[in-house]
Write a structure and sequence with these properties.
The chain is about 30% helix and about 25% strand. It has 20 helices and 30 strands. α2 packs across α3 and α7 packs across α8. About 50% of the residues are buried. The protein binds 5'-O-[(S)-butoxy(hydroxy)phosphoryl]adenosine. 5'-O-[(S)-butoxy(hydroxy)phosphoryl]adenosine binds next to α11, β20, β24 and β25.
């Protein structure tokens, strides 16, 4: 190990750059040393129930649990018989003391408006909106869909659902009406909460129009609540559609939190899998909230006087856990910014950090790489000295981006927590604890206490040091998904069948001699584009749904900015003619079907796709072709070798 006592940097050799926690940081951290971390980790591994029972005291319970864990693999129940309410934990309990006047949400709209909601303001809004939902007949167990821009009302809507025990399902505002409809149909939501429109880089996203198109195919939706964000003109279905502000003005303000079973569903969040329709990841109340609460406190070393900013949208799990449930259950002050990082210019984030004196910043590698490209001059114009901790999430962060983040944004003084987790895991699993763990650029370092990962071969045998394998988790943990909504069998086969007795993450990884984990990316047909998971399957079915497309194969291609970009290989129906305009049309078609985030960056027309004798598309080969590298793999099972040669020479 090559370590500089000041904690700034070490050697020129990339592999050996190790950053110990700065001494001052460690002294006041929640977990202060590697020895403390190891003691906690070992205790949690050996006595998980005692460990989690101790940690769960940080939440406010209406009724204590009778058993910490009921584990009938792969089905877990945590804090059995315990009762609590997530909105009480995130809001009401902070209003019992001086935190009632603390800022809960400091919001900035893309056009520049500013709002501050103190904890008691948030409580008032949440309570009133819960009362609104109740008034529309929403009961415990009814699903509420949410399709909104990043405004405080989105958080209010979620917490109001949690207050009643109505599971929410948030659909990212960048998804199309089609995608929204598919999700609503799967979970049979009764109410949809949306907005007239949202802002993105100065343009309007027509949320209500998309929602109207979706709801036309969703008989389960009885009411649509529309938050007026933009004051744009919208179609109105009298009786079905209601303005948020009108309902809020006409509803009694009180709505006490419902004591809910620890295992009561808190939310469903759809995410892409390697096959079939999106998977409805189901999270429940007690275990999820504990995971969110504890990891926010430990990983971000959250203190009472921090100003915390997670830049994720609530449409993704990062927003659920680290913009809503984690920080609010800790009584934190959260910054929330509605828009794009380069609007009106590339300095927007740094201006926000300077203005609000943000101390903790949690963002994604794809954003960091964009900032690098835009140049140091933007952050250099702002005083970033309030920052004390930086976080990264969504994909592996390349060491170059890590170093830039460390130097240019963190001024060389802020620890970086590279946090590995998934929609399914609910909360951070592998990450440095900033006061305890020496960090290494590119590694998420070590598992958190209570998390027992292993790297194994296909047969489940442990891999050796630095030997790449499949990342699995060996013990259940409180914030784990409970099932795929309405599909226990798929839950079982997707996560618990590949490697017997373990939860399979779908990621490849290796562990080095110091015990640090290096995540190597997905091993299945799942893309990671700008930190967002997309399935090759969904993009393929969107392409194939176009009348001129016969067959399509989609692969990821390495991309400097987005991690991966989307390359599609398309064969056309006879008679259809490959052209630049068709290529554009297919791109727009995918945008309409799924959303702009799934729009292929590259479309190649081809006469055939390389397949095995059994008819499986050989994506491995297509990945090589897309990346422009020579295929070294075995092609002996290829059905038609000439297809491969032809694909190589066909120009984009
Ligand atoms: C997949 C999960 C977790 C919230 C955001 C994405 C990749 C995530 C890291 C990281 C390397 C990472 C993995 C994982 N991933 N964080 N720090 N280092 N890879 O949530 O959409 O559920 O995607 O993102 O491949 O399996 P998600």
């Amino acid at each position: 190990m090559n370590v500089d006592p000041g904690g700034s940097i070490a050697s020129l050799l990339q592999e050996t750059r190790v950053f110990p926690p700065p001494v001052d940081f460690a002294r006041s951290a929640h977990v202060k040393s590697l020895a403390d971390y190891e003691a906690l980790w070992n205790f949690a591994k050996d006595e998980p129930e005692a460990f989690w029972a101790e940690q769960a005291k940080a939440l406010s319970w209406d009724q204590p649990w009778s058993a910490v864990l009921d584990w009938k693999p792969p089905f877990a129940r945590w804090f059995v018989d315990g009762k609590l309410n997530a909105s009480y934990n995130c809001v009401d309990r902070h209003c019992l003391g001086p935190a009632r006047n603390k800022a809960a949400i400091i919001w900035e709209g893309e056009p520049g408006e500013r709002r501050v909601l103190r904890y008691q303001d948030l409580k008032r809004e949440v309570e009133r909106f819960a009362s609104v939902l109740k008034g529309l007949g929403v009961k415990k167990g009814d699903v509420v869909a949410v399709y909104m821009p990043l405004v405080p009302e989105l958080v209010v809507a979620l917490l109001a659902c949690a207050r009643l025990g109505a599971p929410h399902t948030v659909v990212f505002g960048g998804f199309s009406g089609e995608s929204l409809a598919g999700r609503i149909q799967d979970c049979k939501a009764k109410v949809l909460v949306t907005a007239d429109a949202g802002y993105r880089r100065g343009k309007l996203i027509p949320l209500k129009d998309n929602a109207d198109a979706a709801v036309a195919h969703c008989p389960s939706i009885e009411n649509v609540i529309v938050y007026e964000r933009v004051k744009s003109k919208v179609h109105w279905s009298p009786g079905r559609d209601h303005w948020w502000h009108e309902l809020m003005a006409s509803t009694p303000p009180d709505c006490p939190p419902e004591p809910l079973d620890s295992e009561h569903p808190l939310y469903i969040l759809y995410t892409s899998g390697s096959t079939g329709k999106p998977k409805g990841i189901l999270h429940t109340t007690g275990g999820y909230l504990l995971g969110a609460h504890l990891t926010t406190r430990w990983v971000f070393d959250l203190k009472d006087d921090d100003t915390y900013w997670c830049t994720a949208d609530v449409g993704w799990v990062t927003g659920h856990t680290y913009l809503v449930y984690g920080p609010l259950s800790n009584g934190a002050t959260c910054v929330m910014y509605e828009g794009a990082p380069n609007w009106p210019d590339e300095g927007r984030f740094w201006r926000i950090i300077e203005d609000y004196r943000v101390s903790i910043l949690y963002t994604a590698p794809t954003a960091i790489r964009a900032f690098m490209k835009w140049g140091e001059q933007f952050p250099r114009r702002h005083d970033l000295s309030s920052l004390r901790l930086l976080g990264s999430v969504g994909e592996p962060i390349n060491p170059e981006a890590w170093m830039w983040y460390h130097k240019v944004i963190g001024g060389g003084r802020c620890p970086i927590v590279d946090t590995w987790w998934q929609t399914e895991t609910g909360s951070i699993m592998i990450s440095p604890l900033p006061g305890a763990t020496p960090t290494v650029p590119g590694s998420a370092t070590r598992p958190l206490p209570g998390i027992v990962p292993e790297i194994v071969t296909k047969d489940g045998a442990p891999c050796g040091t630095n030997q790449g394998g499949f990342l699995v988790i060996k013990q259940p943990w409180p914030s784990m998904l409970r099932t795929l909504y309405g599909d226990d069998a798929r839950y079982q086969s997707q996560y618990w069948s590949d490697i017997p007795g373990c939860y399979f993450t779908g990621d490849g990884a290796r562990r080095d001699e110091s015990g640090n984990y290096w995540i190597m990316g997905r091993v299945d047909d799942v893309l990671n584009v700008a930190g967002h998971r997309l399935s090759t399957m969904e993009v393929e079915s969107a392409l194939v749904s176009h009348p001129q497309v016969a067959e399509a194969a989609v692969v990821g291609k390495p991309d400097d900015l987005k991690g991966q970009s989307i390359a599609a290989f398309v064969t056309l129906e006879t008679g259809a003619i490959a052209s630049e305009s068709l290529r554009e049309e297919l791109r727009s078609h995918v945008t309409r079907e799924i959303g702009a985030l799934a729009r292929p960056d590259e479309i190649r027309f081809t006469e055939g796709l390389p397949k095995t004798r059994s008819g499986k598309i050989m994506r491995r080969l297509l990945r090589d072709i897309a990346a422009g590298v020579e295929s070294s793999g075995d092609t002996s099972t290829l059905e038609d070798l000439t297809v491969l040669a032809r694909l190589r020479t066909e120009e984009e």
